[in-house]
Amino acid sequence: MTTGATMIRAAIGALLLAVPLQAKPRVPRPEADALIRRMLAGPSTGYISEERIQVFLSGKKPKALKIRRTGHADGRVKSEQTSVKKKGPILLGIDVARESPETGLARLRSFYELTVSTGGVVAKRKTWKVELRLKPSGVLRRALWVDRDSGLLMKRETYRDDGSLSRRERLVKLELPAQVSDADFPAQARSTGPWIPESFTFVGESGGARRYSNGLENFEVKNGRATGDLAEDDAARAAGR
């Protein structure tokens, strides 16, 4: 190699060292209210997901449910329990009573302070994490992991007052977008009664109290008040507030 060529290579190397490496630009962190509105509005396309719900009981091993959800672009969501042995999927219901994002956000804001951070990857999707801390104590009650692209809720954890984990809901498989049609939603299965949290079903009524269960957790609604295994925001919505 000639001296001239060597000098040229050295000059190019020096120039490369002098130019700072361009870091990959960070994705701007969304504002909490905007992210929650997007989550409550739901994806604009159909989707099919498999979800694992774990309930952490004091002094016992966690109990689990498996749920399959089929989401329509118009907001309908069909939930089926798939963890029952020797049986096919059990239809839990079809939720057609989606409330407006503004109403849902107002309810969350009435109970919690919201903060957004990087959430990592859930079911191969990048997420934002939203922490919900009770007013005025600041106790962490819930954490939500929201898909950055679609706004779909990918994971949710609920905590007790002492900080211990009481419930985890996590998508383990997701097809989005998915081919979902009206034929996937039998009309006779549509939910027409009061709103209840996903995975719960009505199990009976006595003494003016309507009782609900998912086999692991229970709550009841009486005189406009919900009591049992629910976080504050779900209890308020189940009671019609």
Overview of the structural elements:
There is one protein chain. The protein is of the alpha+beta class and 241 residues long. The chain has a domain at 32-178: Lipoprotein localisation LolA/LolB/LppX (outer membrane lipoprotein receptor (LolB), chain A). It has four helices and 13 strands. It has helices spanning 3-18, 32-41, 101-111, 232-238; strands at 47-55, 63-71, 77-81, 90-95, 112-122, 125-134, 140-147, 153-159, 165-175, 201-206, 209-213, 218-222, 225-228. α2 (32-41) packs across α3. The longest helix is centred in the first third of the chain and has 16 residues, at 3-18. The mean pLDDT is 88.
Radius of gyration: 24 Å
Give the biggest sheet: 9 strands, antiparallel
Intertermini distance: 82 Å
Q: So what's the CATH class of the domain at 32-178? A: Mainly Beta
H/E element order: HHEEEEHEEEEEEEEEH
Number of strands: 13
Task: Assign the CATH topology of the domain at 32-178.
Answer: outer membrane lipoprotein receptor (LolB), chain A
Name the CATH architecture of the domain at 32-178.
Answer: Clam
Strand content: 35-45%
What is the CATH superfamily label of the domain at 32-178?
Lipoprotein localisation LolA/LolB/LppX
Q: Helical segment tally? A: 4
As residue ranges, the low-confidence spans are: none
Shape: globular
Mean pLDDT over the residues: 88
Helix and strand content put the structural class at: alpha+beta
Strand order of the largest sheet: 4-3-2-1-9-8-7-6-5
Q: What proportion of the residues is helical, as a percent range?
A: 10-25%
Element layout with pairings:
Blueprint: H1 3-18, H2 32-41, E1 47-55, E2 63-71, E3 77-81, E4 90-95, H3 101-111, E5 112-122, E6 125-134, E7 140-147, E8 153-159, E9 165-175, E10 201-206, E11 209-213, E12 218-222, E13 225-228, H4 232-238
Antiparallel strand pairs: 1-2, 1-9, 2-3, 3-4, 5-6, 6-7, 7-8, 8-9, 10-11, 11-12, 12-13
Helix pairs in contact: 2-3
